[in-house]
Amino acid sequence: MPGFRVHITGSSIVGLGYGAAAWYVGDMHPMTCTLGAGLCAVAGMMPDLDSGPGIPLRESVAFAAAVVPMMMLHRLQQTGMPLEAIILCGAAMYLAIRFGLSWLLKNYSYHRGMFHSLPASAIAGQVTFLAFAAEEPLRRYFVSSAVVLGFLTHLVLDEIWSVKLGMFGPKFKKSFGTALKFHGPVLWPNLVTYVLALALGALAAGDAAWTEKLATVKRQMEQAARPYQQYPFQQWQYRR
Ligand SMILES: [Zn+2]
Q: For the whole model, what pTM was predicted?
């Protein structure tokens, strides 16, 4: 099993390549590219959240607890909440991730379970898509794909490390095939994972359609307002 250092190195290299390509070829804003590269690097540690209590779990969960509310900020602003409510929501999210999620992970996940699977990488991408509510669809897809890419990098590295080159060709360790998989041997984690993936998929699709509609309305309003902007701006004359 590759260690923490192998994973973070691998996903950082892939993330850098991904961000650089989007900047160079796709003409993406450098800030979005940097966020994508960073998220890809961090997502490369995500599947090993199932490796039991320890420093990696504690640090990763603490990091997620800080970053997720920040990513949700725009989404919360879109709901029209007052600042106080946004702060309270951020604090509630921090507590839910820091304590709720780590409790769930410590008690209900086992190593190389459904956390190491292809549907889990889809879930990670969908959650990012829902949290990162940028107006332009391309930016949203880019950022959520970065998380999926980092996650997949981890799974691929796990699989590569389970093959050993011996004297008589490659030897497969017992862990081979337990990372890049569609389902595990136990029924209920499979069920939970697939139900979650489907539900989040439906939510994300609905949200994408809604955001697109909102963007169209905004564009139409801008177009409608354009002819009037050409006239010199007149100040309102108030009668006393
Ligand atoms: Zn792993």
A: 0.83
